[in-house]
Each structure stands twice: as C-alpha cells, then as structure tokens.
Write a structure and sequence with these properties.
Structural class: mainly alpha
Oligomer: single chain
Number of helices: 16
Amino acid sequence: MRRDRKSIVAGNNLSYTAVALLFMSDHGAIIFFGSIIGVVLFFPLSADPLRKIPAERLALWPLTSRERRMVRLLSIWLNPVSWALAALLLWTRVTLGLWMLIAALFAFGFAAPWRYFPHFEITHHRLPAFPTRLNQLLRKNLREMLATLDFYAALVLMLPAAAFRAAGRLPQDALLPLTIVVMLMISTCGLSQFGLDGEGAFTRYRLLPLSGWQILAAKDAVFLLVSLVLTMTLNPAAGLAAAFLILAVGHASSVRRYGDERRWRFGTSHSFALSAAQIVLMIMAAAAVQWRSLALLLCAALYLISTWRYGHILEHQLAEPV
C-alpha cells in the first residue's frame, strides 16, 4: 500500500503549478487546485486494500475464519482515508451530517460495487468505433486516456462550468481562464503518451505496418478529441490551440518514455523545464487565439512539424535491433 501511494501526484504539471502558486502566495488558487486533486483522489484512495491481493492467492493463506474476519477488520485501517475520517469525527468544526456524507462516499469507494461485475467495463466495451483502419489503435489509446486521473480532474472542473454556462451564470470573461485550467489538468498526459503501453510497446509497434508519424498521430488524435470534448462548452478554439502546443512540446518526451506510467494515477513528467515550457506555451497559444483566430493555424503548423520530426525519431527507434 505504501509503494502504491508513493509519489501519487509528484512530477505532475498540477503539482508544479501548485508550487509556483505557493511562491506567489496565492492561497485561494492553491486551495482550488488542492480541492480538485482531493476530489479526484478520494475514490482511488478509498479502495479496499485486500482487493490488491489476487483472490486465488488470498484463498491459499492458512487462516481460520476468525482470522480472516480479523484481517478484514484490520485492513480498513491500512487505508489513509479511514484515519482522516477518524480525525474529522473528533474535529468539532465538522458537522455530523457532513461527516456522514464523507463516510458514505468512503464506504461506496471502499466497497466499489462495480468491481463485483468484471464483465462490466465501460472503457473496454462501450467506446465508439472510428471509421479508419486505425480504429483498434485509436480505441486502445482512448482507453488509456480514460484510465488517467488527469482526465477526471479536468472533468470535475468542466462539468460544473458547463452547467453554469447552460444556466447563463458563467461570465464571458471566465471562458478563456477556465479553458486554460482544464487544459492544464490534462497537459501532463502529453508528456508521456506511451507511458501506459507497457514494456513490450516497442515489440508491438514494430509489428504494425505503420510509419512513426502515424503511430504518433494516433496518440495525438485521441488527445485532441478529448481536449475538444472537455472545452466544447468553454472556448474550443483556445482549447485546440493549447492542445496543439501541448503535443508539440510533449513529443520530445513521449517518444523516449515507455511503460513508466500507472493506470488510475496522475501522469508524471520527468523534466520540470519541459513542463514549464509546455505550460507557458499552452497559455500563450490559448491567449493568442483569443486575440487573433489565425494563431490557431500557426499552432497547428508547429504541431505538424513536431509530429513529422519526432515521427522519424520514433521510426529510427523502432528500427533498432532488439
């Protein structure tokens, strides 16, 4: 459990932004980002520790029924949320109703009823089909994107914003800043697009009758699609421009990183300088499109140049002997 939760958010663009805001003494923004991260992490942290043990292995443990019940009871306290709930119960400033609500959410996440239905996997069986010969590759990339906490952090922000806009309560001036923050939430995914492919990714990609830029474009297409969906109710043009530069910068890192990411975790960046450059250029791109719409074409051109260049680098890597 300790290894599983080690560095759960470290190295993410959100953590870098939080550190920058800390130095700027912007306490409101720190609380804002911390709240979103906390909401997204709540259910993964609430998971039952015993579910990490394969059922077959757990059945082989030489324990009596009484001992198994004791292990079941003690395993709850391996979960950090259990200790947080105990502390909140003793904190007089937290009302009993609020504590019961948090406890109910924890119980829901701990029991995770959907885990009892192994054949019910939305991300595996209910994805759309793409009208191209890269259909299965695109669906695989989309499954990986939906298995990152970065996507759900952006969703936590996007859904209330969309509801406020539908109700006519979202100021027009808030659309661009919210778009930038939503794109910031998923920007780290652009730095490690092959991170969830596993260690055998090179072998599998060598067997595909595709050039390097096509493999890279299949990853990018999913990121661009998700970006458009997340920013559709805000400022899609600014979101698309930001996505182009996120990918243009991220290609340098993505083609050299395989199998070093974990599902249901935030993405990680191995370079603070690259993350900083990505964040700054992303903000500049979104703001430029707000000022001049032709800036979107420039962002698209920079993206295409990056895809062509790093597609060739990827081809050379795949051509190297195993």
